[in-house]
Amino acid sequence: MSVVDALQQLLLRAGAGWVLWLLALLSIASVGVMFERALVLRRRGADLKALAEQLDPHLARGDHHRAITLLRASGSVAGNVAAAGLRLAPRGPAAVEHAMNSALALERGQLERGLAFLGTLGNNAPFVGLLGTVIGVVGAFEELGHAAPGHGAGTGVGAASQVASQAVMSSIAEALVATAVGLLVALPAVAAYNFFQRRIAALCAGSEVLSSLVLAYLASAPGASISGDDDHG
Question: Whole-model pTM?
Answer without folding.
Answer: 0.77
